[in-house]
Specification:
The protein is built from 6 helices and 10 strands. With 234 residues, it is an alpha+beta fold. A hairpin with a 4-residue loop joins strand 1 (11-21) and strand 2 (26-32).
């Protein structure tokens, strides 16, 4: 025990970058901070690590506290340890990012935190180094989405190809050629066309599709060529 005496005790926090998709825009879930410093300013959802839990358990607790969600896509991103990142106390933060379907869970958001969804293109300035966390999470999301179909975590069970294209364009902040995107998407063999159509955008409508989860598990590289030149977005 003598080796621990005199060592500086440092707080450990987790911060969750929660991405959602509403069918048109990629969005970020933010809360109004309820205490000083930076009270009433926009923040990621976070909390301190408890002595009885792991980092993953803490991140899942924070996510459930805000959204009521469990068993969603949650990935550890990076450790932020700048000495002056929190003016109140020396705090090391471990950031996570989560992917959820907005429409499935929007009624579960806790009113205690005044949570709101913001389009990534028009989000407010965030406290401390939270903007840096979001930028890093966007970069990681683009990297992972170019290799694996993880963006399906943002979609409902049934979706249209235009919705899927909107989502990819939101993640990469660019426009894709519709015909080329559709051709590449269908060539993966991972989509199963449904009988119904979404006619909210036109009289002709767009067929609904579902992800073939059995094929998805064995064809993790099927989306490698869906995003042209992904390196330019990183």
């Amino acid at each position: 025990m003598k080796h621990y005496l005199g060592q500086t005790r440092i707080l450990v926090a987790v911060d969750c970058i929660i991405f959602g998709f509403d069918g048109q825009d990629l969005k970020l879930l933010l809360i109004k901070r309820g205490f000083e410093p930076e009270k009433d300013k926009w923040s990621l959802m976070g909390g301190f690590l408890k002595g009885s839990e792991t980092l993953d358990q803490a991140a899942n607790r924070v996510l459930k506290q805000l959204t009521g969600l469990e068993d969603v896509y949650l990935e550890q991103l990076h450790v932020f340890s700048d000495v002056t990142r929190d003016p109140e106390e020396r705090t090391v933060s471990v950031a996570y990012f989560a992917l959820i379907d907005i429409h499935q869970y929007e009624t579960q958001l806790s009113e205690d935190y005044h949570a709101e969804w913001f389009p990534l293109t028009s989000k407010p300035r965030l406290i401390f180094d939270h903007d840096d966390m979001v930028r890093m999470a966007q970069k990681q999301l683009r990297y992972k989405a170019a290799l694996h179909p993880i963006l399906f975590e943002l979609l409902p069970q049934r979706f249209t190809i235009p919705h899927l294209q909107n989502m990819y364009e939101g993640v990469y902040e660019t426009n894709f050629d519709s015909r080329n995107f559709t051709r590449k998407l269908l060539s993966t063999g991972l989509l199963v066309r449904q009988n119904g159509k979404d006619k909210s955008g036109s009289k002709k409508g767009a067929f609904y599709y579902k992800l073939d989860k059995r094929k998805y598990k064995v064809k993790q590289d099927a989306f490698l060529n869906l995003v042209p030149k992904p390196d330019k977005f990183l």
